[in-house]
Each structure stands twice: as C-alpha cells, then as structure tokens.
C-alpha cells in the first residue's frame, strides 16, 4: 500500500525554551517517527570533541548561532542516513540559508512553529538544569528533580547550559526573532506552516496531536502488512 509507506517529514521551530524538545519527544513517542534535535546533535559533538563540536562550542557559549555552513555540513548527511524513515527535525533550520539548503535536499510536509511569550521563555529557561552525561533535562518548576541540584537516576550534580545563563539568554531570545522571520515567511508562502500560540505546552499539545493524526500515515497493522 503506497499510502502506508509514504515518508513524512516535519520541522518544529520556536525560540529557545518554547518547548520544541518536549513536544518533539511526545511526537516521536506518539507517532513513532525519528526525532533529530540540532541542539542535542551539537552537544553530542561537543562531548565527543569532534572538529565541528569544538568549533560549535565557542558560539554556543556566547549564545550565538553556529555558522550555517557548519550546521548544514553536520545535519544534511545525518538526514540522508535516515532518509528512508519519517522524521521530525527540531532546531534546524534556524536561518533562511539553512532553510534553503534543506529545501534543495528534500520536501517538507509540515512545519510547526511555536509562539510563546518572551516573559514565559525567560522564566522557563532560568529554571532549567541538565544532567550533562545523559542529557536529562529538569525544570525546577515544571519538572523538578527529586533532590534540588541532583540527577534522579545517577545522583550526580546537575548543571545549567552555558546558554541558559542570563547573559547569553537575552541575546538568544532577541536574535531568534530576527533570524526566524524570513524562515517562517518562506514556509507560510509554501502553505505548510502551522503556528501554535500559548504559554503552556500542555495546551498546545492536543492541537499538534490532532494535526499530525490527520497528516501522518497510520502505522501498518498486521492485517495490512505485505506477506
Ligand atoms: P537547542 O538545543 O536547539 P534552543 O535554545 O533552541 O536550544 P531549547 O533551549 O532546547 O531550545 P526547547 O527545545 O524549545 O528549548 O524547549 P524545551 O527544552 O522543550 O523546554 C524548555 C524548558 O521549559 C524545559 O526545562 C522544559 O521542561 C520546560 N517546559 C516545557 N514546556 C513547559 C510548560 O508548558 N511550562 C513550563 N513551566 N515549563 C515548560 O540549541 C542550543 C544552541 O545550539 C546552537 C545555538 O547556539 C543554540 O543556542 N544551534 C544552532 N545554531 C545554528 N543553527 C542551528 N540550526 C542550531 N541549532 C542549535
């Protein structure tokens, strides 16, 4: 059945702290598609001290975007590796140049844009702590660890991302809007942009879930599988 085996490709965009990671995990879990986070991918490269990782770290530390050519050279080959699966890209593209590079590599089905007020974002990121070895993310208000400052599983100390510290944070939020605008306009003009506005991820989620239920081919049931 051609419909069943169709591949679905989506992008989720939104400012730092808008809930891309949280919602992406729900999408991946609910619809069984691959989730690729540009931020996680960069952090893996930093931890592994790859050439791109070492370079990226100098930008991330300052709350700056990693240069487009570094991002596209990292991400596009990764997408090619999973080209036979449905996927959701989280955090890429961030700029018009990245969107154009992605455009020439593949056709997107849906772009989700999260629109969360500035004050809400500042408040959330201020309270975010991570366990660096595993990448587990806590929020002292939304999703606190059992013991403040300590990872639930390993008992190791939690840290803040360099780019969640106040100096880098305001720069990131301000910069995001300027850079995202032409990307959003591009996807709007293609008719694939879906914008969701709220202060609460749990309010946004049901709308995204019903959008994707209508767009993503249902997983094959045993009755439909080829003999
Ligand atoms: P990242 O890792 O892509 P950001 O900054 O875009 O980082 P971030 O910070 O990971 O995105 P998010 O994924 O949008 O945020 O949000 P999240 O992690 O799900 O939620 C944020 C926090 O809010 C969490 O603590 C969560 O628990 C909490 N939360 C979620 N929902 C709610 C809610 O409803 N209520 C409350 N109270 N809390 C909630 O990129 C990192 C850096 O890498 C570089 C850049 O330097 C970037 O800054 N980079 C790129 N550079 C160039 N081009 C690219 N394409 C790049 N991609 C990454």
From TrEMBL:
Q: Which reaction does it catalyse?
A: dTDP + GTP = dTTP + GDP; GTP + CMP = CDP + GDP; UDP + ATP = UTP + ADP; dCDP + ATP = dCTP + ADP
Intracellular or extracellular location(s)? Mitochondrion matrix
Instruction: Write the Enzyme Commission number(s) for this entry.
Output: 2.7.4.10, 2.7.4.6
| Gene Ontology terms for molecular function | AMP kinase activity; ATP binding; GTP binding; nucleoside diphosphate kinase activity; nucleoside triphosphate adenylate kinase activity
GO BP terms in the entry: ADP biosynthetic process; AMP metabolic process; ATP metabolic process; GTP metabolic process
Q: Which is one Gene Ontology cellular component term of this protein?
A: mitochondrial matrix
**Annotated region LID: where?**
127-164
| Similarity comment | Belongs to the adenylate kinase family. AK3 subfamily.
Know anything about its domains from the record?
A: Consists of three domains, a large central CORE domain and two small peripheral domains, NMPbind and LID, which undergo movements during catalysis. The LID domain closes over the site of phosphoryl transfer upon GTP/ATP binding. Assembling and dissambling the active center during each catalytic cycle provides an effective means to prevent GTP/ATP hydrolysis.
Question: What is the annotated role of this protein in its UniProt record?
Answer: Involved in maintaining the homeostasis of cellular nucleotides by catalyzing the interconversion of nucleoside phosphates. Efficiently phosphorylates AMP and dAMP using ATP as phosphate donor, but phosphorylates only AMP when using GTP as phosphate donor. Also displays broad nucleoside diphosphate kinase activity. Broad-specificity mitochondrial nucleoside phosphate kinase involved in cellular nucleotide homeostasis by catalyzing nucleoside-phosphate interconversions. Similar to other adenylate kinases, preferentially catalyzes the phosphorylation of the nucleoside monophosphate AMP with ATP as phosphate donor to produce ADP. Phosphorylates only AMP when using GTP as phosphate donor. In vitro, can also catalyze the phosphorylation of CMP, dAMP and dCMP and use GTP as an alternate phosphate donor.
Name the UniProt record assigns to this protein: Adenylate kinase 4, mitochondrial
Q: Which organism is it from?
A: Alosa alosa
Indicate the span of the full protein covered. 44 to 270 of 272
């Amino acid at each position: 059945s051609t419909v069943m085996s169709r591949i679905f490709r989506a992008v989720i965009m939104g400012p730092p702290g808008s809930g891309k990671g949280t919602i992406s995990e729900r999408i991946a879990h609910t619809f069984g598609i691959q989730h690729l986070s540009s931020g996680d991918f960069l952090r893996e490269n930093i931890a592994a001290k790859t050439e791109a990782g070492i370079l990226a770290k100098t930008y991330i530390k300052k709350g700056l975007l990693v240069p487009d050519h570094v991002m596209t050279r990292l991400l596009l080959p990764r997408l090619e590796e999973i080209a036979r699966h449905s996927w959701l890209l989280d955090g890429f593209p961030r700029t018009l140049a990245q969107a154009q590079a992605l455009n020439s590599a593949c056709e997107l089905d849906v772009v989700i844009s999260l629109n969360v007020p500035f004050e809400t974002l500042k408040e959330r990121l201020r309270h975010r702590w991570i366990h660096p070895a595993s990448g587990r993310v806590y929020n002292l208000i939304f999703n606190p660890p059992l013991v403040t400052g300590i990872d639930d599983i390993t008992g190791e100390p939690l840290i803040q991302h360099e780019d969640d510290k106040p100096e880098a944070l305001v720069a990131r939020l301000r910069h995001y809007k300027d850079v995202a605008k032409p990307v959003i306009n591009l996807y709007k003009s293609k008719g694939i942009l879906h914008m969701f506005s709220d202060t609460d991820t749990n309010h946004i989620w049901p709308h995204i879930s019903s959008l994707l239920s209508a767009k993503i081919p249902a997983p094959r049931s045993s009755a439909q599988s080829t003999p």
